């Protein structure tokens, strides 16, 4: 059978299923009158047709109105009204949704709900359905190459006075050679997401597997932390708690004890998307040189009014900055107007002063379709 990216496990996996099976249990009576449970195939919540259209489905036999929309971005928040069949399934076929990852909102009688038939992720501070329409480039597919391992690790954090967890990717050859050591990328998710975002939405493990197999990036360990270090004593905080101290004083020492990490700051990188890019900016510039490889995905440098650290002072001595930072990388979507407007004056100033940086752009908005590509571009440059 010919390879089809639309059938690939990376497209059909989420936090509950590696390969979503779309099954439900139903009582069945055979020819002899025996009654027992059987599995039958359920309707798919979002089925990508061969021509790229998407048929959405929701089961709500008592509902008066059902609709589906995106969160904005390439799939806008326009509501598409569904039509009910005799069995209580509502459906609509939508044309023109661009390829890539799209969060979904389902509305039943005006109430936004999660579709039990659909694949789920955690985003925008809630459990959210999504549809993943295959792109022409299958760089994040699960391919027939050596695969790295995802490990859930627990560590005690003095900063929060409780045990936290982090996800750790080790490259395919990690367990084969017990003497070999690796550089580490600390990779942050965005606001309203969890440390699983880069796995289920971002497909980072497949991206790294494929790049390593092709010889296009250095084998590395990747650590994904939740960027929230909740401090209940502080309300209305943009970044809740002291993530900076947790990462530097609790997580990094744990990782460097637990895994075979190359010694030296030159073997440590940090990158993040959106709110994670802001955290990356704060941490890497506050501790200039501790992370010589910096990745800012869909983030601007504009200093927020509540920021307690003037990181712009780090740009004033261009020679010192260029000496300590090996890669200062900015990646974003070409339709992210707010990010572009925020970055433009800073990048122009860097050009004038000779401060070194790299940029990567691709078509897209503030969404995972862009961030997957940013990670691929960054991974090809980091630790080189």
Keywords:
29% strand; 8-stranded mixed beta sheet; globular; alpha+beta; Rossmann fold; Immunoglobulin-like; 384 residues
Topology:
Layout: E1 23-29, E2 35-41, E3 46-48, E4 54-59, E5 66-70, E6 80-81, E7 83-84, E8 89-94, E9 100-108, E10 111-113, E11 120-123, E12 126-133, E13 149-157, E14 162-170, E15 184-188, H1 197-200, H2 204-213, E16 221-225, H3 243-258, E17 268-273, H4 275-286, E18 293-297, H5 318-324, E19 327-333, H6 337-353, E20 358-362, H7 368-381
Parallel strand pairs: 15-16, 15-17, 17-18, 18-19, 19-20
Antiparallel strand pairs: 1-2, 3-4, 4-8, 5-6, 5-9, 7-8, 9-10, 9-12, 11-12, 13-14, 14-16
Helix pairs in contact: 2-7
Description:
The structure is a single chain. This protein is α+β, with helices and mostly antiparallel strands. The protein folds into two domains: 5-133, Immunoglobulin-like (Sandwich); 149-381, Rossmann fold, CATH 3.40.50.1820. Helix content is 21%, strand content 29%. It has seven helices and 20 strands. The strands form four sheets. It has an eight-stranded mixed sheet with strand order 13-14-16-15-17-18-19-20, sandwiched between helices. Strands 5, 6, 9, 10, 11 and 12 form a six-stranded antiparallel sheet that branches. A hairpin with a 2-residue loop joins strand 9 and strand 10 (111-113).
């Amino acid at each position: 059978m010919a390879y089809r990216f639309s059938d690939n496990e990376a497209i059909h996996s989420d936090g509950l299923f590696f390969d979503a099976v779309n099954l439900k249990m139903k009582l069945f009576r055979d020819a002899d009158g025996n009654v027992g449970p059987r599995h039958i195939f359920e309707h798919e919540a979002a089925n990508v047709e061969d021509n790229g259209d998407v048929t959405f489905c929701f089961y709500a036999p008592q509902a008066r109105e059902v609709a589906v929309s995106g969160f904005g971005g390439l799939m806008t928040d326009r509501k598409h009204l569904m039509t009910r069949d005799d069995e209580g399934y509502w459906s609509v076929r939508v044309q023109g949704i661009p390829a890539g990852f799209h969060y979904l909102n389902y509305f039943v009688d005006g109430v936004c709900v999660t579709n039990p038939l659909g694949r789920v992720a955690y985003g925008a501070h809630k459990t959210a359905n999504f549809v993943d329409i295959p792109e022409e480039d299958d760089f994040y597919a699960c391919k027939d190459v050596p695969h790295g391992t995802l490990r859930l690790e627990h560590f005690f954090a003095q900063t929060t006075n409780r045990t936290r967890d982090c996800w750790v990717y080790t490259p395919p050859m990690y367990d084969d050679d017990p003497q070999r050591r690796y550089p580490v990328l600390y990779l942050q998710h965005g606001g309203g997401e969890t440390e699983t975002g880069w796995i289920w939405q971002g497909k980072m493990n497949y991206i790294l597997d494929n790049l390593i197999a092709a010889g296009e990036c250095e084998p590395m360990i990747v650590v994904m932390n939740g960027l929230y270090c909740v401090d209940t004593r502080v309300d209305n905080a943009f970044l809740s708690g002291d993530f900076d101290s947790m990462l530097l004083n609790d997580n990094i020492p744990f990782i460097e004890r637990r895994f075979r990490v190359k010694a030296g700051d030159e073997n440590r990188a940090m990158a993040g998307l959106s709110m994670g890019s802001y955290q990356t900016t704060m941490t890497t510039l506050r501790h200039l040189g501790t992370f010589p490889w910096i990745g800012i995905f869909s983030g601007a440098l504009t200093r927020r009014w509540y920021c307690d650290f003037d990181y712009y002072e780090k740009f004033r001595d261009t020679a010192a900055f260029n000496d300590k930072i090996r890669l200062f990388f900015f990646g974003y979507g070409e339709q992210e107007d707010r990010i572009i407007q925020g970055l433009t004056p800073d990048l122009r100033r860097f050009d004038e002063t000779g401060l070194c940086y790299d940029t990567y752009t691709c078509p897209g908005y503030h969404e995972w379709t862009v961030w997957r590509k940013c990670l691929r571009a960054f991974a090809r440059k980091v630790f080189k």
